[in-house]
Specification:
By secondary structure, this protein is of the alpha+beta class. It contains 4 helices and 7 strands; from the N terminus they run E-H-H-E-E-E-E-E-E-H-H. The chain has one domain: Alpha-D-Glucose-1,6-Bisphosphate, Chain A, domain 4 (2-Layer Sandwich).
Length: 159
């Protein structure tokens, strides 16, 4: 097992309709309004919505700067996929589908840290890094649910 290779998968069930969820996930610039661990989103190209830097800090005391570049944007299939570069490299994907009156979001990620400190600490802290990611995703789901229920306005997410 390579301690620097992470695969994540999670399912979010939300009361909001799939098109609303997809629209919120598609608008990466709004993530800091509802996802506590997303500190900042910076556009990197001239008027381009296809790439940007996302600054992340979860429970552990380090920040990550990740360049996201859109790889797949398919509203009909409910798929948003991005390539990640920077402190993490790999890819991430949201797949949004209808689930009764609400929606189901499947999050998948395949990544490796490129930040030297994270690579050096990978073996002893691998379980802690996975737990840190789980907390971030749980808070992301809660934040998105509150944001959608609050008419797309900033929300506070309590643990």
């Amino acid at each position: 097992m390579d301690p620097n290779h992470y695969r994540f998968r999670g399912v979010w069930r939300l009361a909001a309709p799939a098109p609303d969820v997809y629209a919120a996930l598609e608008d990466v610039r709004s993530y800091p309004l509802w996802w506590p661990e997303i500190l900042e989103v910076r556009q990197t190209g001239e008027e381009s919505e296809e790439s940007g830097d996302v600054v992340v800090r979860a429970l552990l005391p380090y920040r990550l700067v990740i360049r996201l570049e859109a790889r797949r944007h398919d509203p009909a299939a409910g798929v948003l996929e991005a390539v990640m570069r920077g402190d993490l490299t790999g890819w991430s994907r949201f797949t949004v589908t209808s689930d009764g009156p609400g929606s189901r979001v499947v999050f998948e990620e395949d990544t490796r840290p490129d930040k030297p400190l994270l690579r050096r600490l990978a073996l002893p802290l691998h379980p802690l890094f996975r737990a840190n990611h789980a907390v971030m995703m749980r808070r992301g789901r809660r934040g998105l649910a509150a944001y959608l229920g609050n008419g797309g306005r900033r929300v506070a997410v309590d643990e």
